[in-house]
Amino acid sequence: MFATQLQAARSHVLANDQIRVTITDAGKLESVGNLLAAETYSFSSDSFTLDTDLGLFSNRNLRPTRITAGTRRIEFHYELGPGDAHNAGRISADLVYTLTGNNGFFRRALSISNTVPLRLKSLVFGTTTFTTPARET
């Protein structure tokens, strides 16, 4: 059980001189630090939902099957859908966080690939919720 807790607590970080982005092992945004202002914004929820003719899929309660982490890019790979013994009907989703140069922002993108015809009805990045509201002056 202790090893499971350690594994669940693992995070990935993208950082430069302006911001520090922390992402959980599940691919969810955990915090964004504004290094110039010495402020950190923590998040309690962050997910995507994909609505297709094959069904509704989300990473809300799903762990990625593979994580590829570099200094400027972190990619979370998800396998969605029932599929069969040969993975026909599976949808692959890659959630990618990128921080380039010395930008004060990061990008989050979702790439979808499929093995059978697929009609995309909608893609919704869920509401990103702050753990505590930002203190504005």
What labels would you give this structure?
1 helix, 4-stranded antiparallel β-sheet
Q: Care to give the gist of this entry?
A:
The protein is mainly β and 137 residues long.
Radius of gyration: 17 Å
N-C termini distance: 44 Å
**How much helix is in the residues?**
under 10%
Secondary-structure content class: mainly beta
Adjacency order of strands in the biggest sheet:
1-2-3-4-12
Gross morphology: elongated
> Hey, roughly how much beta strand do the residues contain?
over 45%
Spans where pLDDT lies below 50 across 5 or more residues: 1-8
- How many beta-strand elements? 12
> pLDDT average, as an integer?
83
Order of helices and strands: HEEEEEEEEEEEE
Please describe the biggest sheet, giving its number of strands, its sense, and whether it closes into a barrel.
5 strands, antiparallel
Total DSSP helices: 1
